Amino acid sequence: EVQLVESGGGLVKPGGSLRLSCAASGFTFSSYSMNWVRQAPGKGLEWVSSISSSSSYIYYADSVKGRFTISRDNAKNSLYLQMNSLRAEDTAVYYCARDLARASLYWYFDLWGRGTLVTVSS
Amino acid sequence: EIVLTQSPATLSLSPGERATLSCRASQSVSSYLAWYQQKPGQAPRLLIYDASNRATGIPARFSGSGSGTDFTLTISSLEPEDFAVYYCQQRSNWPPLITFGPGTKVDIK
Q1: Across-strand partners of A46?
Q2: What are the DSSP E strand ranges found in chain A?
Q3: Closest-CA residue in chain A for B105?
Q4: Closest alpha carbon within chain B to A59
């Protein structure tokens, strides 16, 4: 089955750190660019970060630049998001999402995980 | 930064009716626009990309049109499973930036 499964969310204090993981299965993970998209409770969608298939190209939204780091391990079919200096406004469900096109950054998302909730609160 | 505006915020319709959703960009995005459907407690689902291309497995009752700054998602005849929130999304190559609209909720009248 083609799927993405996120993990690693939870409750963290402001200023703390968390590492999210996304396990991919059922497709050739190493051929696709991958992304993180978040959704604050009751709010809309916000793109967070993108990484190309070989990790050569990495991009971040201004709201997380300098605090979050995206990475991937193609041997383990896994995507990661290291989140440091967390703020209350980072509270959201974090989705892992596959890029529509193989071998390029097309920036449309055709496969999504179910998400993992990150809550930043004291 | 390109800002997307969606209208209306809420659309109340009955099954079988036609739904017309609008997305407007603050500057031209060419045809680099997608539409997603999201149901409560679920991840978004890609419906349309590049303004008018249906994603794999999307029924023909969903269609997209437009270019530049004005885009439309049309659902020709609403099925019960179509009541959801719909988001538009644009992509700009440089600087690399992806933004979503605030969403339109289609609910049952």
Answers
A1: A38
A2: 3-7, 10-12, 18-25, 32-39, 45-51, 58-60, 68-73, 78-83, 92-102, 109-112, 116-120
A3: A44
A4: B96
Give the A-side interface with B, CB within 8 Å. 37, 44-47, 50, 59, 61, 95, 100, 105-110, 112-115
8 Å CB contact of A95 and B43 = yes
In this structure, how many other beta carbons lie within 10 angstroms of the beta carbon of residue A13? 10
Per-residue confidence at B94, pLDDT binned at 50, 70, 90? confident
Burial A40-63 (b: 16+ CB within 10 A, else e): eeeeebbbbbbbbbeeeeebbbee
Chain B residues whose beta carbon lies within 8 Å of the beta carbon of residue A51: none
Q: What is the pLDDT of residues A25-84, one digit of tens each?
A: 999 999 999 999 999 999 999 999 999 999 999 999 999 999 999 999 999 999 999 999
For CA atoms B101, B52, B92, A2, the dihedral sign is positive
What are the pLDDT digits (tens) for A101-114?
A: 887 788 999 999 99
Contact A45 B45 (CB under 8 A): no
Q: Which residues on chain B are in Cβ contact (under 8 Å) with A112?
A: 43-45
Mutate to test the interface with A, among B98, B99, B100, B105 (most CBs of A within 10 A): B98
